[in-house]
Each structure stands twice: as C-alpha cells, then as structure tokens.
Amino acid sequence: MSRPPLGYRWTVCALLFVVTTINYIDRQVLGILAPTLQRELHWSESQYGDIVSWFSLVYAFGFLAAGRALDRVGVRRGFAVAVVAWSIAAIGHAFARTAAGFSAARALLGLGESANFPGAIKTVAEWFPKRERALATGIFNAGTNTGAIVTPLVVPWIVLTWGWPWAFIATGSLGFLWLVLWLALYRSPEAQPRLTPDELAHIRSDSGEEAESVVPWIRLLSYRQTWAFAVGKLLADPIWWFYLYWLPKFLDAQYGIRLAQLAAPLIVVYLVADVGSVGGGWLSSALIKHGWTVNRARKTALLAMALLIVPTAFAPLAGSMWAAVAIVSVAAAAHQAWSANVYTLASDMFPRAAVGSVVGIGAFAGAMGGVLFQRVTGRILQATGSYTPIFAVCGLAYITAWGILHLLAPRLEPATVAEPVRV
Prior knowledge:
- By secondary structure, the protein is mainly alpha-helical.
- Helices cover 78% and strands 0% of the residues.
- The longest helix has 33 residues, at 9-41.
C-alpha cells in the first residue's frame, strides 16, 4: 500500500504539538520564576520542593482518571475540558501570595494537565499506523522542549515589564486560543470529512488491530507489559521534572545566573532536547522500516539513550556554566528520545481501546516518583546545599529502568486483553 505523502493526520499531529507546547509553558513558568519568588516570598528549599510536588501528586491521580475518561468519552471532548481546566489553574497562580496558595494552584494545574499525554498518545494510536507512531510521538513530544524554550524567552520580559503575576496570566490564556482550533479541526478519523479514503486505509493498515471494548484499568495491572511501561516512566519522569523545576535554581546557586540571564542556557538545553525528541522517535521508526523487529528497534533506541545519560552524574563537577549546560543538554535530548519510545510502547503492546488507560497508569507511576524525588531534593538541598547526590541519581536512573523493562517485557509481546485473565 502506498503511503500518503502528507495527509491530514499530520495536521492532527501539529495540534498535539501546539497543545503540548502550551502545557509545558504553563507548568514551567514557576520554575523560571522560582529564584525570584523564593527571594521575594521567602520560601525555604523544602517549601519549594513541597510546592512543586503538589503538582506531581495531583497529576499522578489525575492521570488515572484522565486515561479512563479519554477511553470513554474520546479525545475531542476530553482534551477540550482539560485545556479549559488547566488554563484557569495557570492564571490562578497570579493571585497566590503564600506557599499554601501556590501549592493549591499547582495541584489544580496538575489535575488539568494530566490529560495531555494520555490524550495525545491515544490520538496518535487512532490516527497513525504502528510504523509511524514513534515519529508522530516524537514530534508532538518536541512541544515539551518548545514550551521550555519559549518560556525563558518571554517570561523574564513580561516580569521585568509588568511584574510576575502577569507572566501567569499571559501564558495561562494561550490554552483558550488553542481550544478554538481544536474544536474546529478535530474529529475522529472515520468522522473527518477532510480525510481521503486512501489515508484512512493507511491509518488502519495494521493487520489484526481492531477496536475493542474498554478494559478496566485494574485488570491491566495483571499484565507484565503494563508494569514494563510503568517502570519506564517511574524512573525517568522524575528526572525530567527535576530539570524543569530545579535547573534554573541550580544555575542560580552554582553560577549566579539570575532571571534576566536565564534565557541563553535554558534555550540551549531545550533546543538540543528537541533534536532528541524527534530524532529518538525517528530512530526506532527507521530501524523498523529497515526490517528490525519492534522489540529490537525500541530496545536498541532506549539502551542508547540510557547510556548517553550516565555522564549526567558529573554535571555539578563541571568547571563552568556552559560545561554543565552541555552535559545537561545531552541528557535532556536523550530523555526526550527515551520518552518518545517509551510512550510508543503502550500502543505497541496494547490495543487502541486500552492505550489511554495504560498511559495513565504509567504516568501515575512517573508522577508519584516525581513527588518523592522533588520532596527529597528539597530536603537534601536544605540540609547540605549540594546537588551532587541528586545528579548521581539522574545519571543512573535510565540504565536501571532499561534493565527492569527488558526483564518484564523481553520481547514486547502484545497483551491479549480480549481474553479473560486467569489467576
């Protein structure tokens, strides 16, 4: 079957890229402003760790509900509700003045944003055949880095011009603009009049993948494939959030980089990370097109990324700010390549009807790991002032995750969820 060169499915992918960009802009504003707010509002290191952990805690439980809700109501309505909720929460940060107020705003933001990745992965599973999913996932996942690049470019200017509350108001309003495009352009493939019959046939070209009834998420816990996906999230996601929330503070504490100077190092980190996001998805997809099995292609890409991340342990020992930025940039790119492939594992191993729930379970594990890591990070810094043990964990987490993932799913066999589970 010939592949449509540039079909409507890539418009859908572009919408996912934009909403993921907005998602990360909204969540990263606090990280950019952390040193400024900490000095102005007199937070301790442990208080800041607790504030950002509230996002992760509610995000974790929101993932479970979001994955299930998206499997039931579909991504068009589900995404619309989620974007409205998190945009209101993002704007709400502007009116907080205490650690408790910011904790409440972070919790509400986490609840709304929890739908983004289960929704995006489910949309990719509905709109792309397996051989294109890693690439599509890598493209929309590059929105995380684009958001992380845009934020340090615009937020310092807004803050220095109008004050920090307006940074939350201006960025939080972007979601409402995206919502108009989403409701105008998105329908399911079968209901989309702009989709040609050839492209629909291409999207549905995977043999043996038929729509199934929604699988209870509790039942999904009985599959090793679910746990393999969850481990890939549990050990890696907290590291990415550490970069997002603590990197500006690390640069401030280690090298005296203030708000007006943050843009250059952070843009370098996340531009390099963008290359990793798209490149990592492209790598495994290209290997599959060259005849590699899905298992061999995904595992090879994941192992290569895990090995690239190991030198992160030495970032606090770098002799200069730019040496540290170079180390973290490679790690961020490798993380994004890792993430694109791990997300794709859900649609590799489960039918479309279960993908949202499986991603929700895995993201719950990653977010709960983030809660623990952020609280521990704050307390380590409060007690020692040293980032060295924290970066050591960052360097070793992925290779550990790869080993456990391989043990749990040695061949990435598809889960036979249509059959009853025997205990």
